[in-house]
Amino acid sequence: MRVLLVEDDDGVGDALSDALAARGHLPTRVVRGADALTRHHDADLIILDIGLPDIDGHEVLRRLRRVTEVPVLILTAHGDERSVVRGLRQGADDYLIKPVRLNELLARMDVVVRRTGRRVPESRIVTVQDVEIDLDARRVTVGGTEIPLTTMEFDVLAVLASRVGTAVSRQQLMDEVWGDAYLAVSRALDVHLTGLRGKLGRPGLLATIRGFGYRLGG
Ligand code: CA
Fold this sequence. Notes:
Arc Repressor Mutant, subunit A; 5-stranded parallel β-sheet; 8 helices
């Protein structure tokens, strides 16, 4: 399976990546929490360290759970029970205590993916007026015609579509699409929004909330 490994310790990260690859998985290792927020789309499972250099792992998990149901296994320091409990409450599917034993990791990965795979999938198609946004297939149709969007345009739209009729602040949009790492992203957001509006061709569908952010429909 495609595993996004979020771990800043090179020793642990490299060892786990190698071990996962050797067992036929496709690991991608990132170091920062912000990377987890931007790279989760392509993962079947996320292994998330709690102590990260930029954003605390708990905060990463909280933000992930606002946008994705992808299974998350948290990695935590030995004996840090409070951290485990907090992680599970925030929507982690399981946890592992460092140092990680490989066979245990592999077994738990299988269990978590099997268990979450049986969840009844919610409909992930959002319809607003004659615009249909398929969040899983990453496809958008307007009046039945498919509209080609760039990756970023789709990501921006997906955040808005996950809260149709609700105002989403610029900061929240940027956090969820880019993570915290990007500083000079504000103008880029405007560019993507302009692109989106042009392609959707439905004036008023994507409303600007002055001084705050945006709202899709409603
Ligand atoms: Ca760490």
